[in-house]
């Protein structure tokens, strides 16, 4: 009997661990940082990421952002930027991700834009 109750307790502990790990996931979000303007996009992701690129509406390719202090990423254009913006990035934990239309055309400094991507 002791082995049966031990097995049940072990199974319950494993299930609890899986549930707690799953509940740690949250939606990736991007905050637009100070200094955003029609020609400048500043992003602050909610997780550590690298190699951040954005694709403007109607563009064929992604444009790289410059990494700044405190986890900020900046794109400066000579002309007005055209949203919505899709974001492609490399997660620090590995792998590339793309989030389509993550930042709307009418972005404003200090706004938070949540994505459906769970991290």
From TrEMBL:
Q: Which domain of life is it from?
A: Eukaryota
Q: Secretion signal: which residues?
A: 1-24
InterPro entries, A to Z: Allergen_Lolp2, Expansin_CBD, Expansin_CBD_sf
Instruction: List, alphabetically, the GO terms of the cellular component aspect.
Output: extracellular region
Alphabetized SUPFAM superfamilies for the sequence: PHL pollen allergen
Q: Key word Protein transport present in the record?
A: no
State what protein this is by name: Expansin-like CBD domain-containing protein
Q: Which residues form the Expansin-like CBD domain?
A: 49-115
Q: Which UniProt keywords apply?
A: Secreted, Signal
The record's listing under PROSITE patterns reads: EXPANSIN_CBD, PROKAR_LIPOPROTEIN
Q: Which organism is it from?
A: Panicum hallii var. hallii
- Spell out the subcellular localization from the entry: Secreted
Give the matching Gene3D superfamilies.
Expansin, cellulose-binding-like domain (2.60.40.760)
């Amino acid at each position: 009997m002791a082995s049966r109750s031990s097995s049940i307790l072990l199974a319950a502990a494993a299930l609890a661990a899986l549930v707690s790990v799953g509940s740690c996931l949250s939606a990736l979000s991007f905050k637009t940082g100070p200094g955003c303007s029609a020609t400048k996009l500043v992003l602050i992701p909610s997780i550590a990421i690298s190699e951040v690129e954005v694709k403007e509406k109607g563009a064929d390719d992604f444009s790289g952002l410059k990494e700044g202090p405190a986890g900020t990423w900046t794109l400066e254009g000579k002309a007005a930027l055209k949203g919505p913006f899709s974001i492609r990035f490399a997660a620090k934990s590995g792998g590339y991700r793309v989030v389509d239309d993550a930042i709307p055309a009418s972005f404003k400094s200090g706004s938070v834009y949540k994505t459906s991507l769970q991290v």
